[in-house]
Amino acid sequence: MFFRSVARPADVRLEVFGLLGKRIRVLDRGFKSGGKLTVRFDATGLATGVYFYTLRTGDFSLTKKMVVLR
Questions:
Q1: What are the residue boundaries of the structural domains of the chain, listed by start?
Q2: Among the four residues 17, 19, 53, 68, which has the most C-beta atoms within 10 Å?
Q3: Counts for the chain of helices (H) and strands (E), in that order
Q4: d(Cα 67, Cα 49) in Å, to the nearest integer?
Q5: Which element (helix H / strand E) includes 10?
Q6: Which fold has domain 2-68?
Q7: In degrees, to the nearest 5, what angle opens at C-alpha 44 toward C-alphas 26 and 39?
Q8: For the whole model, what pTM was predicted?
């Protein structure tokens, strides 16, 4: 599950990428009002390993690492 605050209303895109930069999934996209963003992530079908997720809004981008363990 991902939690993040969006400071003001904006178009938001939350994506998961593999180690080589290939987009694996788009978890959420669209216009969101400001406030807390909560997205449930189901890793079914993903192999154990390291992945990255990126949250983008109009003028903000955040990339973090995550590890999927089985």
A1: 2-68
A2: 53
A3: 0, 6
A4: 6
A5: strand 10-17
A6: Immunoglobulin-like (2.60.40)
A7: 45
A8: 0.83
